[in-house]
Amino acid sequence: MRRYLKVILSPVKHFLGQCQLFFLKPFSFFCVYSYMKAFRFNIIITTIFILFVTACQSPVQTKKGRTCPDINEIHKQNKLTACIHNNSIDYFILKGKPMGFQLELLNNLSDYLNIPIEINVDNDLHSNFSKIASGKCDLVAVGLTITGKRKDTISFTEPIYSTRQVLVQRIPPGLTKRQLKDTLISSQLELGGKTIVVEKGSSFIKRLQDLSEEIGKKINIKINDTATSEELIAMVSNGIIDYTVSDENVAMVNKNYYDNIDISVPVSFVQNLAWGIRCGADSLLDTINTWINEFKKTRKFKLLYTKYFKNKRSTKHNFKGFISSNNKGIISPYDNIIKDYAKTLHWDWRLLASLIYQESHFNPQAKSWAGAFGLMQLMPATATRFGVDSLSSPTQQIQAGVKYLKWLDKQLKPDVPDSAQRIYFILASYNAGLGHIRDAMRLTKKYNRDTKIWKDNVAYFLFEKSNPKYYLDKVVKNGYLRGRETKNYVNKTIERYKHYKNLIQN
N or C: fewer beta carbons within 10 Å in the chain? Predict the structure, then answer.
């Protein structure tokens, strides 16, 4: 410390000495010049030295004075906390299995760092950035468009993938191709005067503002404070709003679910998307960037991207599975097997046949984008639990699926004693996983509806599990679900069962 004080006080000592010299030689401007030059040099050297010592003694600090831990500190804490969005792409649970593009990226990063990653689910971008600034999160694992304004708040990693922004508009039913061409927007120049609803905090806002200037016409930009990009796409499909903007890869996934939307009009050039890290956390940033650059070259990354963004999200079907007057009471090649195992389940065999058709169209080689396989479309973990794999015979597949249905029946029976009602709960659980159905039942109870009744009660809240108001509720343990799909699954299975009963004698 004495050595530091000596360095700091030396300019003062020099100043006093030069003052004495100045008064002894009042007409010597040369001395004044010498003093100023020496004093300035010492101040510069001292300042550099102090900054060097400070940098060596303490971690980097953010603009708000909060410490940014380096990669060594994160290893010491043995935890990296990541903000992630709960939706049908980034992070979700399907049939009890946690899935999602961003989640699987984080899992691979965790393996690379040999550090567990703690998930912080938060769909609000403003909140994500706030958590990064305050130190509650180390990483925002969301596809963030790299913009100059955001660089003032966070540091971006190397780009993970790229996309462009597209207009999402509804395709009116019953129109010819020529009529559609005259009705749908086909150019950015036609957006003037239109009202476009976008997600709060998204980069779409700035892009539309710039586009409005570029085309010389005002675009009415309406910001929705609660809905996510995917929810806004659903609102377009359902006719609640006319237009929204989405990243093209997200829009393409949602077009699998909403075939009445058009996403052909781009509103931006191709843009890089990356993760966000706290400003100043340079060693963490460098480490993650090294991993990103290496991982993007692997086949594993390409398969992961294809799985979530390019897959049709449907089972590949080869069998027609329909009934005509020539079928002579046959639904599938596996009717006899289905009849035998339906008895052990105490189900009408035609109901079990309807479920199998809904799952695989009676194709024992069917495989879904999520990894489910076979006639019963069991997920790998469930299949292992009940003793089958992708090489098992059709009989073994049906047997395992029925065992799983029995297990679901046993779990639900205490809460839904009526067997007719319980069928709906079992079908929904088979499709989405029991956890999501339990969530819907808890919401039903919270809002004072009947948890033992499916229609307009539990089904209603299952449908609403894509709404943040409900899937972020404290009673919900399994997060986001595209409940519309599960509700449709149940309805289609029951409706087909009714047709089977009409056409096929028991």
Answer: N
